[in-house]
Structures are given as C-alpha cells and as structure tokens.
Specification:
182 residues, 40% strand, elongated, 3-stranded antiparallel β-sheet, alpha+beta, Immunoglobulin-like
C-alpha cells in the first residue's frame, strides 16, 4: 500500500516555500525572500523557548553566526571567558514605537565547581532588547565573564536565559577549565 505525500505534508512553511518559488520564477526575488523570511520568523517564534547554539568563542562575534569558536574550553588564569549564545522561540510583542515589534531577554549565570556546587551567581548579568519590523530569528548574545579570581581547576558555567515577555526560561551548561600557564 502506498502513501500519498503531496498536500498531506503541506503547512505554513511548505505553503510559503511554494509561494516564494512562484515569486522567484516570476522574477520577484525580493518578494520571494520576504515570503520565506516571514514564514520562517513565524515558525521559529512559535518554537518552545530554548538555547540553540552555545559555545565559547575567541572574541566578540561580528554578527549572527559570525564567530570564531575556541579550539577548546581551557582558559589561562585571568583570561576572560567569552560565550556566544543563540536563544530560540523568543516571544515578540508590539513595541512602543508604532509598527514595530520587540523581544527581550535577560541572562543569569551560575559558576559551579566540578562537583556541582555553586561558587557564584549573578541575576540579570545581561539584558537584551531587540526591536524591528519583523520577528527576527537571527538573535544572539555575547557574554563576557571575568573569573580571574578562580583557581586552576574544572568548572561549569550555567547560563539561564529568561524570556521577559513569556516568563519562560532555558538553561545551558558550558564546562570549562582553568589551567596553569605553561
């Protein structure tokens, strides 16, 4: 027995892709891009709040997905720790400016030792507001932490992202170590 695939798999993304293909074929590249971007933005904004990419980086990213990952998670004593984090499923609401949308999130952190004991924490370590005419899904945060007082050893940096508009939270653990300078 065969299974029909065609329209049974259709949904908002498939519909938008079909419209975008038609627009592109008709020479409307800008319209095709807008159709796909808007459909993807709506889809991604409907995802559960979560952390997508979370990684240590060598310095400040120049944009979304534009970063140099660290080759490892071993830091020298006194070296600043820089992390790149992408939240998913942020809640968008109308902004105070007409015809604009905004999303907001804050970041808390816990510094844990290798046995899971909390050595230090900070609420609202970072606060981020994004404002635009569409539900932009290419949002990231650069988080820089100074743990120069921490001795050589293994640690876990636990970031808690808080979606301001929904009240939802998502967490991610980034294990790292501080090694004695050679």
């Amino acid at each position: 027995m065969g299974v029909a695939c065609g329209s049974a798999l259709a949904g908002p993304l498939a519909d938008a892709a079909s419209r975008a293909e038609q627009m592109a074929t008709a020479g409307d590249a800008a319209g095709a891009r807008t159709a796909i971007r808007d459909a993807m933005s709506d889809f991604l904004a409907g995802l559960p709040f979560a952390v997508g990419t979370a990684t240590f980086v060598t310095g400040d990213p120049s944009g979304f997905g534009m970063f140099e990952p660290r080759p490892n998670s071993v830091f020298k004593p006194g070296e600043k720790i820089v992390a790149y984090i992408e939240p998913l499923g942020l809640t968008w609401k109308p902004a105070s400016t007409p015809d604009r949308l905004e999303t907001r999130f804050s970041v808390d952190f816990d510094l844990l030792d290798d046995k899971g004991a909390v050595l230090g924490s900070q609420k609202a370590f970072g606060n981020f507001i994004f404002n635009g005419v569409s539900k932009n899904s290419e949002i990231f945060a650069t988080l820089t932490l100074d743990v120069s007082e921490a001795p050589v050893g293994a640690y876990v940096l636990r970031y808690h992202l808080n979606d301001t508009h929904s009240g939802k939270t998502a967490s991610v653990d980034l294990p790292f170590s501080i090694a004695a300078a050679p």
